[in-house]
Amino acid sequence: MQRIAIFASGNGSNAQRIIEYFQGHPKIQVTLVLCNNPDAFVIERARNMHIPSVIFTRHDLYHSNHLQDILSVQGIDFLVLAGFLWLIPNYLLQAYPSRIINIHPALLPNYGGKGMYGKRVHEAVIQSNDKESGISIHYVNEHYDDGQIIFQAKCPIEPGDTPESLANKVHDLEYRHYPEIIEKVIEPSADGASLMELR
What we know:
It is a single chain. The longest helix is centred in the last third of the chain and has 24 residues, at about 165-185. Helix 1 packs parallel to helix 7 and helix 6 crosses helix 7 (about 165-185). The protein is globular, with a radius of gyration of 16 Å. The protein has 2 domains: about 1-95, Formyl transferase, N-terminal domain (Rossmann fold, 3-Layer(aba) Sandwich), CATH 3.40.50; about 105-135 and about 150-199, Rossmann fold (3-Layer(aba) Sandwich), CATH 3.40.50.170. Helix 2 (about 40-50) links the parallel strand 2 (about 30-35) and strand 3 (about 55). It has helices spanning about 15-20, 40-50, 60, 65-75, 90-95, 120-125, 165-185, and strands at about 1-10, 30-35, 55, 80, 100-105, 130-140, 150-155. Strands 3-2-1-4-5-6-7 form a 7-stranded mixed β-sheet, with helices on one face. By secondary structure, the protein is α/β, with parallel strands linked by helices. The two termini are about 25 Å apart.
């Protein structure tokens, strides 16, 4: 059984969708939610779905072994970022090589980097008069939104779209694809089909 820990900072709708997707899965399960925001609704979502959660501080993440010890004790095999806003430190990158992935609400390499999250991304896309947006699922490295892209899916931007309406389109793509891509990364298909063919 491959055990997933989800890192999240906010509402947790993606985290909930991922937990639901893997409930009853024969080979993969979400066993832990980690959150840097004690007021985040993701904690309540995890509690309602009977998933243990850990709240941690910046010191815990960057200046102690606290999180690494927790992940080790829990036997975590794979880390999933779902609306997590802090940079992953090198010790976790080294402990989980090619086993940490993130989702970004735009078509990278555009509209990524520090401070580009949530509504800020959609506002920037709308202001640039782009014709499409979407999601990018990528491996995590030492820079924000810079790791190798695993999968992208697109949605059109219509005249009259607002950051809010675009966010709804992007959320739909996130909910539809993120759990599926996580599964494909952890358990590649026997026939070696490319992840990009899922688009």
